[in-house]
Amino acid sequence: MNLRDKLKHANWQLILAAPIAAGILHICATLAAPYLTAASAYSRLAPALPVNKIQVLRPLAPGAEPLPFLPADARYAMCRFDTSAGPVTVTATLPPDPGWMLAVITRQGDNVYAAASTPGRATPITLVLVPSEEYFLGVTPEARGIARNMEPPVPIAATRGIVVVRGPDMGLSYRTQVEAVLKRARCSGHSF
Amino acid sequence: MLSHSALTPIHVVLHKVQKRISMLLALLGDWAAFTGIVLILGLGTSWYMIDIGTPLTTERQGPWLSWTSAGRADADPYTRAHFARLGTLQLSAEMTLTYVANTDSEGRRLHSSCDYSIEGREPGTSWWSLSVFDDRGELIPNTARRYAFTSQSIALRPDGSFLIALARDARPGNWLPTGGAGRLALIFTTVDPSTPLLAKPTETQKPLPAIRRIQCR
């Protein structure tokens, strides 16, 4: 059978359908990949973290890393939050030194909020984490005729995830100071 | 050969069965080829784009590779899948940039049996760090308990540049131990809250350290 005959007898329906089916499989495999992995950052960290409570992690050491490729250039405090029973308030004050960060990361790995320290002044942060469908946080103090004496909290919509406070490792002499700042961070749940 | 008149009913039935089997086999062959092509093309391209990345999702500067929308809520599905599979905690690419190097500047795989010099200048961001891991992302045990250098812990030269010796045995200056880890991965992180969110990648691109192989054992 020569090439002409082969082309004549080829199943053109299948040949044309192959790239379309491959494209559909490519899209499905890519979209499903994050949900099929059993070792996402959240699933690795969640068992060791209490719910709605901040925990200062021990200094990273070989054999005791909570996650792969987590740089040992910082100390970490983490809070596994769950807003299904009510909003969660997160407060922290980032010192004026460079390298401090606070991030809110959802279960899917999306960084929905991030703040870094500002040189020359401390950065106070107050967040209210609310379920994705819940944005109403009640009547504001101004609406009730009460003067506000603090910055209004920033509402963030996220149901489950992890709050990470990251303090740079500035050497042995600063270790206690960095740990004290991490311990002052708060994460607390409230009922509706 | 049997003449037409010599064909018995059993021969006719056998001939029909043989013809149907050959048709079925041809059809099965077509479907097997179809399934194979679909699996290879569909899953292969998905794996490549998730695991290795393309210029659509990554930015390469010499040996350093960065996923441009890492950690962002509007990240593309490939970036999302990449970090979910890796199991790492990504801070927003709007504020931090993380570069990974698995090779030296000449494209040779980083290995603990070789010594390297990492030379660069301060990237001009408020804070940066350079960490070394084995290829599974674990810290490398060493007696100095040193796993990273940061902008606060590194000894800079008078002109503001730095040199880090990546080696198994102790070196003078900024020494980052590699022990007997085998294949290595370097992670260079910069934190820059002043980077404009809408800046184009070329506007925010900073020169990254060069990784040179000195010798191998």
Quick recap of the structure?
With 192 residues, chain A is an alpha+beta fold. Chain A has four helices and nine strands; from the N terminus they run H-H-H-E-E-E-E-E-E-E-E-H-E.
Strand and helix map with partners:
The complex is a heterodimer of chains A (192) and B (217).
Chain A lengths: L2 H7 L2 H25 L4 H5 L8 E3 L17 E9 L5 E7 L6 E6 L4 E6 L6 E8 L23 E4 L2 E9 L6 H10 L1 E4 L3
Parallel strand pairs in A: 6-7
Antiparallel strand pairs in A: 1-2, 2-8, 3-6, 3-9, 4-5, 4-8
Chain B lengths: L8 H43 L6 E4 L2 E4 L9 H10 L9 E6 L12 E8 L5 E8 L13 E3 L10 E7 L6 E4 L6 E8 L9 H4 L5 E7 L1
Parallel strand pairs in B: 7-8
Antiparallel strand pairs in B: 1-2, 2-3, 3-9, 4-7, 4-10, 5-6, 5-9
Helix pairs in contact in B: 1-2
Sum up the structure in keywords:
heterodimer, A: 192 residues, alpha+beta, five-stranded antiparallel β-sheet, four-stranded mixed β-sheet, 4 helices, 9 strands, elongated, B: 217 residues, six-stranded antiparallel β-sheet, 3 helices, 26% helix, 27% strand
What does this structure look like?
The complex is a heterodimer of chains A (about 190) and B (about 220). With about 190 residues, chain A is of the alpha+beta class. Chain A contains 4 helices and 9 strands; from the N terminus they run αααββββββββαβ. Chain A has helices spanning about 5-10, 10-35, 40-45, 175-185, and strands spanning about 55, 75-80, 90-95, 100-105, 110-115, 125-130, 155, 160-170, 185-190. Chain B is of the alpha+beta class and about 220 residues long. Chain B contains 3 helices and 10 strands. The model of chain B is unreliable at about 195-205 (pLDDT under 50). At the A-B interface, α2, α3, β4, β5 and β8 of A face α1, α2, β5, β6 and β9 of B.
